Amino acid sequence: MFLRTMRAPIETDLGSGWVAAVRALRNADNDELSDNSSTELSDTDQQQPDIRTLNHDAPLPRTEIVVPIDHAVLHEEHHEEQHEQHVNLNYANDSSDQEMGRIGLNLSYPSYSEVEVGDDDALGDDLAKWANDFQVKQNATDSLLKILKDSGYPNLPSSAHTLLNTTRNVPLQNKSGMQYIYFPFARELVKNLNRYPSVITDAIDTLELSFNIDGLPLFKSSQKSLWPVLCGLANVKPATVFPVVLTYGKSKPDDLTFLEDMIRDLEYVLQHGLQFGGRTLSVTLRCIVCDAPAQALVKGTKLYSGYFGCDKCCQRGKWIGRITYPEILGIVLHTDLSFRDQSNEEHHKYRSPFCDLSIDMVKDSQ
After folding, report:
1. Residue 282: how many CA atoms within 13 Å on its side-chain side?
2. Which stretches are tagged as biased composition: Polar residues (predicted)?
3. CA–CA separation, 104 vs 94, rounded Å?
4. Of 208, 191, 184, 183, nearest in space to 276 by CA
């Protein structure tokens, strides 16, 4: 398109020039021309084409070749210049990449031995507390431990079992007709106190304990149940609850033998205190929390729905329509002394091991 656009005006101008020159030659007087003029004209005729043989449709070499070729050359030179700049730019980029590659090859990274490693023991304790507090699954904890071990903590354990000090083989005993596990009471107290920051434990002079005893059915398809004894630190915030006794078996224990170990250790800390952080903390019992059936079991008394089943008074009650109603006249209240002496024989079924503790068996077990 560019060649056709430039060709038309150039051919028209040059053709008009040729016609004017020929006309001038025809009108000139040949006689007045000198030999030199004739020679010059002859030379001109040899150099210029005859008007009769001039073909306007034929391509003109000087017109069609010179102008387009010059443009083509310029266009090609411009294209070559751009290509050269592009090549030079690519070469510069390649050189930069090669230079960066050479620099990257010379980089050295510190090994794990050169990295400052933190306190793995402290981190392990924090991770164990985190896993317990948020009930993290063991496979998730295992994956996190692997990442941390590869990131500069090689002394961390490899599994959640090791991190949480999970005992694989637990020795079981049989007490009260059930499988029985006991966690030493004083050791568990110290273990749970160590989880608190020193700013909290340093301000504690007395530990107030509360206990909960109750049955927990595990399966709908069987009568098997778990009877845990839980201890709580009542005056330490946030409150901590931990198991002391676990029993598993039929619907409920046959007797209270499963409480003997706990009561023995509890009586010791109530009398002598607890050694913690180079100090002796006094220990008191705030309460024992049970629902009505568990309370009757633990205290060795009749159930609340029977005659003489009231925990507050010694009255017999009145049976009306399958329900025992308390009387309101002539009420005699239970006391700690009357309870220990079992003065109201109809109220007691057997002696409770909690009578060995220095507690009020009426007020502290509501």
Report:
1. 4
2. 35-50
3. 15
4. 191
